[in-house]
Amino acid sequence: MTTTTTTTTTSTTTNDASSAKAAPTPQDQPVVRSLEGKYYTSPEIFAAEQAGVLMRTWQFAGHASQLENPGDYFAFEMSGERLFCLRDKDGEVRTFYNVCQHRAHELVSGSGHASVVVCPYHSWTYALNGQLLAGPNIRAVPDFPKSEICLTGVATEVFHGFIFVNLDPNAAPMDEWFPGVREELGAFVPHIDALKPVEWVEIPEKCNWKVSIENYSECYHCSLNHKTFATGVVKPETYDIQPQGYCLRHTTECQNLDSMTYPIDLDSNEHAGAYSSWFLWPTFSFQVYPGNVLNTYHWRPHGPEDCTVWRGWYTQGGAPSDIIHKLAVQDRETTVEEDIHLVESVQRGLKSRGYVPGPLVLDPACGVNSEHSIRALQQWMREGVEAG
User: Fold this and answer.
1) How far is 246 from 230, CA to CA, in rounded Å?
2) What string of DSSP letters covers 181-204?
3) Cβ of 162: how many Cβ atoms within 10 Å?
4) What is the mean predicted confidence (pLDDT) over 283-289?
5) I want to staple 350 with a disulfide (CB 3.0 to 4.6 A). Which of 37, 178, 260, 281 is the partner?
6) Average predicted confidence (pLDDT) for the chain
7) What is the largest CA-CA distance in the chain?
8) How far apart (Å, rounded) are the C-alpha atoms in residues 93 and 156?
9) Residue 245 Ramachandran class (φ > 0 left, ψ -120 to 50 alpha, else beta)
10) For residue range 234-273, what is the model confidence (pLDDT) as tens digits?
11) Distance from CA of residue 123 to its chain's centroid?
C-alpha cells in the first residue's frame, strides 16, 4: 500500500469562469454507497486482506515496558504469522519471525528472558541480533555458511513506547503514514513516554474486524446508543473526525468537566480538559480522555466474522490506580457493551439477502451526523483488498 493523504473535500482554483461554473458542488457529487456485504463476510476477501493490508501496514505488537532489559522477549501472532520481539544488547527493540533457519521449529513461546535464542529442536543458537552463533556439529560441514545465517527480521518502530511492526520490508516510516500524530500525542499526554499498561480488557466480538472499526470511526450513532459517552465525556454536536494521512483524527469539545467522575487539574497543561483520538489504520487507536488519561483500542482479526478488541489503560510506571480501574470498568459496562450488540447485529444484517448497501450520509459541513470518515475508511478497505 502506498501512503496517501485522503481529504474529505476538494477545491479547485481556476481563471476559467466557465470551468468554475461547471465544477460540481458538494450537493451535486454522486451518491457514495457503503461497501457490499461480501467485504465483511467473504472468506476469500479476508484471505486477500491477510495477504495484503494486514501484511503491509503498521500493526501493534506490544509495549516497550514488556522488554525492559536486554534479552527480554515476548511472542505474538499477526496476520497469520508467528513473531517475537526482543531487546538486544544495545537496547534496540527488534522483531523476528518465530522460526529457526535450520528446519523451521518455533524458537520461543510466551514471554521471558534469554541471553541468546536457542531453538528447542536442535539447539541452534542465535545472538540477540538474530545472527547464528552455533549449532551442534556444524563444524563438521565443510564451508558451513554460519556468517550468512540470520533470523528473518521485521520492520519495527517504537512509537511513544508502543511497539509497531510491519511485515513489508519496504514499509514507509510511521511518521509518513500518520503525519503529525507523534507530536500531537506528546502534547496531549506529556508523560506518555513514562506510561506502562495497568489494565487490559479483552472483548471478543462476533463480527468482521472492519465492522467494529467502522463503528468506532463514526459518532453518527453516539447520541442514540452511548448515553454515558455522549453526556459524560464528549459534546456530540462538536464531534468531528477527519483523515490525517492514514489516521482518522477524532476531535470534540467536552461536556461540563465539573461533572466528570474523577478529578482533573485543568492548570496542569493546555490539553488537560480535552478529548481526542487518533485511529491508526488499520487496527489501532490512541484515545485521550480529559486529564490526559491515555487509553487504547487494538483490534485482532481472527476470521471473516470473528475478532477481538483489546482496551488498554495506562498510568505512569504502571502504578495501580483506582481512578483508571473505575474508568475501565465503567467503559466496559457502558460504551463497550453497547457497541458489542451494535456490531454483532450489523454482522448478521450483512449476511441478509435483503441488504442493499445504502448511501453514506456525507454532510459538506462534516460534523457528528456525517459519515465522511466512513467514506475515507472504506476507501482504505477497498485498497486493502486490492493489495492482496
Assistant:
1) 26
2) HHHHHHHHSTTGGGEEEEEEEEEE
3) 25
4) 96
5) 37
6) 88
7) 82
8) 7
9) left
10) 676 778 889 999 999 998 877 666 666 777 887 888 888 8
11) 36
Distance CA 152, CA 309 (A): 29
Distances (CA, A) of 151 to 129, 158, 283: 8, 20, 27
Q: Write the CA distances from 41 to 208, 215, 231, 281, integer angstroms.
A: 7, 16, 34, 20
From residue 95, give the alpha-carbon distance in Å to each of 165, 166, 196, 325, 358: 7, 10, 20, 31, 43
pLDDT band at 369 (very low <50, low <70, confident <90, very high): confident
352: Cβ contacts below 8 Å, ≥ 6 apart: 37
Instruction: Report the run of H or E that residue 223 belongs to, with start and end.
Output: helix 222-225
- Cα distance between residue 292 and residue 270, in whole Å: 10
C-alpha span between 287 and 28 (Å, rounded): 35
Output the 3-class SS for 74-96. Answer: EEEEECCEEEEEEECCCCCEEEE
Query: In this structure, how many other beta carbons lie within 10 angstroms of the beta carbon of residue 135?
Result: 21
Helix or strand or coil: residue 132?
strand
C-alpha cell at 207: 463480527
From the DSSP assignment, how many helices (H) and strands (E) are in the chain?
A: 11, 17
Residue 223: pLDDT above 70?
no
Are the CB atoms for 60 and 158 separated by under 8 Å?
no
| Ordered structural domains, the chain, with CATH | 59-166 (2.102.10.10), 178-386 (3.90.380.10)
Tell whether the model's pLDDT for residue 1 goes beyond 70: no
Cell numbers given for 384: 486493502
Which residue spans within the chain are E strands per DSSP?
Answer: 59-63, 72-78, 81-87, 93-97, 111-113, 117-118, 125-126, 132-134, 153-159, 162-166, 195-205, 240-244, 247-252, 275-280, 284-289, 293-303, 306-316
Nearest to 324, CA basis, from 358, 295, 354: 295
CA dist., res. 54 & res. 58, Å (int): 8
CA distance 127 to 96: 12
For the record, the C-alpha cell of 293 comes out as: 488519561
Helix axis angle, 337-350 to 209-216, nearest 10°? 130
- Copy the grid coordinates of residue 329: 470498568
